[in-house]
Amino acid sequence: MDVFPYTAGSDQLERKDFLRFSGLFTEIVAAEIPGDGVIRFVENSAPFAKIFADAMVVRKLSAAFAKMVAGDLKFVVVADTIMLAFPLISRGCIAAVVRGVDPLVLQGLAEDWLDEVRVKMTRTFVDIKQQYQEPVTGLLNSAHLFSILERSEDHREKGLLLVALGLPRRFMSDVFRGVQRAAVDLALYSEDRFFLYYLGESVFALLREDCGDIHLEQASAALIQQLRKEGYARVQIGIGRRICYEEQDDCRQLLDTAWSALQTAERRGPFSFCDYARFMDRVSHPLYVASAAVLRKLSRLARKDTIFSLAKLSGKVAPDQIPRLQNQIVSAGVSLLVDTDGSVFFYLAKYTAKQACEYMTELIARLSWLETSLYCGVCSFPYADFSRKKTIQNVQKALLHAAFLGPQSVVLFDALSLNVSGDVYFADGDFAAAVAEYKKGLLCAPDDCNLLNSLGVAYALLNRNALARKTFFRVLDLDPKNYMALYNLGLDARSRCAWHEAIDCFEQAKAYCDESVEESVQRDMQLQLGILYCVVARFDKALEVLERWQNMISKERHGPVYRYLGEAYLATGETGKAMMWLQRALKYHSFDAEAMSLLGCALLRGGEGDDIALSLCTKGVELAPHKPMLRYRLAEAQWRNGQYREALRSLKYCNGKVVAKEAVYLLRARIYAALDDVVRSRGWAKRALGLFSPDDPYYHEARSLSQNREEKAENI
Question: Exposed e or buried b for every residue in 350-388, given b needs 16+ CB within 10 A?
Fold first, then answer.
């Protein structure tokens, strides 16, 4: 019987509830206990020293909090402060600290009344949680999103990411499981940085109430990379932001801008994002060249010359500085153009690229009176196959290139300038435009490995994987030790489930890394190798690599490897360690079907409770019924619990390459032996015996079962 994919919302509180609903919970406490409005929710005693100046109060509250965590105390009154305990679904509690309580309330305070108020508030907290929680995913719902956006008194800059995911839709069960899996993956990414919502139709929202300290474009790019590695077929993100609201109904503007940006992201490709503000404000875009009026003037000048150069300065000039700037031009054929925003262009008729660079270098030296650190971008015509119109556009790309070199630099437009402009589009989430820029750069420098690597990554994000592979192999033809090409090929091979090919690429990439390589790349190589070693059953190597990876990053970020450490320890016979890591894996990712199934298997081997093991293996199959290995572990648990017919039904799903045939045959032999069906038991045991090598630990069991004479075989 299939199990319905979700249950009613929890009627108990969690730590995250006090983060998600802190404003509403604070209002409820303030309404029940009158005071000066200073209310804090604490999860440990550390904040007391900052909240209270009186050391005696700090000591008393700290001692009381320790008793609350142990479950021995529900409330306490210290001086003018009341502290109430709210137990959590996990061990421990969150305490509400109410300072400056009205003296009249304290005078007539009865313990029964205070406990009654605490219980009443707990019920109200749970009601709020269930009101604002989406039932399928356990995330916040749209009602909570609107309540946050409608806080008109809140003038912090809010940022909103709308995330559309490509999830399986073949069967109804796939829809539910896909959404639940996505909810967990997004929660692991967002941690406590965003409020996380499910809006329906595979669209999620991540809201940041104060995004002044976070770069939303970088967060979107990182999220796309992470979800792509997790196997999602489509990830598109629309970014909206809003500083404050002058009208109550203006809250929709943030949603509208993010929604419009999401539509643009969907047109850009399967993996893309769009920031509405950057998309709409073309003048502020890094690749904005000039106003239409200046572009027309430059086009008219360029039409007359077969050879010309164009330069743009980094600084801006005020209207009263233009005459003095004009006086600095002492050469014939040089025209000055100043845009409405103060941008400065020089059109150099009949100047070659070399002559233009020499002239601008000398001119910048004479412009020290502008009191700004100047640098300059220069482009020339003819160059490669760029038209006059494109040449004018190229001057801004040269200027961006010059910005990397700093003051006094004069940079001539080249392939590297196009790499820079491609990176700008890449950072915008417009990967198709980035591909166009990188390809133009390769017309100028066909063997540029940086351009080729960038092009390959952009192709991959457009799901043009064959072209991406071809591009990375082209890099290796030019530079066989190029670690980035090998790393990217490893990611591609992993996405195709070509495990050994991926391992080979990552091992080579790691061997060619030196100290100059970014730490993030080195860490990810270690992580990818550790996971892949588990996949191909090289568990000793997996433990070595994953433990080294753990030493490279902070303990709070170890979560992604817990399951793999558990699997590796289980395979190497260290059942106790395996159970510890698998329990941590489920605490980190409560819907991890593999971790759940592996923990059930570990409990079976450790003799820690066959019934609990069966429950875990069953739940694992419910979460991921399409995985044969989970079905096999369930069959093993059913056999151990005497559910022989159910075990045989589970083994029907264990065909193919994922589960070793000899393991399936041996388990069938065990089951039929338990059913006293000696003929079938011997038949399956003989088939298993033909696949086991003599040194395999299960060889002798298979041999014993194959020689069984009317006796029930025992499990060795």
Answer: ebebeebbebbeebbeebeebeeebbbbbbbbebbebeb
- Which pair of structure tokens corresponds to residue 422? 């491609």
Whose tokens are 């200073």? That residue is: 38
Enclosing H/E stretch for 11: none
Alpha carbons 623 and 660: distance in angstroms, whole number: 22
Helices (H), 449-518: 449-461, 465-478, 483-495, 499-511
Q: How many CB atoms lie within 10 A of CB 101?
A: 19
- 199 — phi, psi (to 5°)? -105, -5
Read off the tokens for 163: 């995330």
Q: Find the distance separating the first CA and the last CA of the chain, reported in whole Å.
A: 32
CA-to-CA separations, 547 to 189, 523, 524, 527, 634, in angstroms, rounded? 22, 12, 13, 10, 29
Contacts of 10 (CB under 8 A, 6+ apart): 89, 129, 138
- Segment 434-468, tens digit of pLDDT: 999 999 999 999 999 999 999 999 999 999 999 99
> Rg of the Cα trace of the chain?
33
What does the H/E/C string look like for 669-680? HHHHHHCCCHHH
Q: In whole angstroms, give the CA distance from residue 5 to residue 174.
A: 10
pLDDT at site 37: 63
Q: How far apart are CA 567 and CA 581, in angstroms?
A: 9
Question: Which helix (H) or strand (E) covers residue 271, if one does?
Answer: strand 271-275
Asked if 326 and 288 count as a contact pair (C-beta separation under 8 A), the reply is: no
Copy the structure tokens of residue 324.
């003095």
Coil, strand or helix: which one is 694?
coil
Nearest partner of 210 among 198, 236, 223, 192, judged by Cα? 192
DSSP 174-243: HHHHHHHHHHHHHHHHHTTSSEEEEEETTEEEEEES-GGGS-HHHHHHHHHHHHHHTT-S-EEEEEEEES
- d(CA 159, CA 207) in angstroms, rounded, equals 6
The closest alpha carbon to 674, from 709, 637, 639, belongs to: 639
User: Among 449, 454, 425, which Cα is nearest to 438's?
Assistant: 454
Tens digits of residue pLDDT in 340-396: 999 999 999 999 999 999 999 999 988 888 767 889 999 999 999 999 999 999 999
Among 444, 406, 443, 404, which Cα is nearest to 420's? Answer: 404
- Entry pTM: 0.83
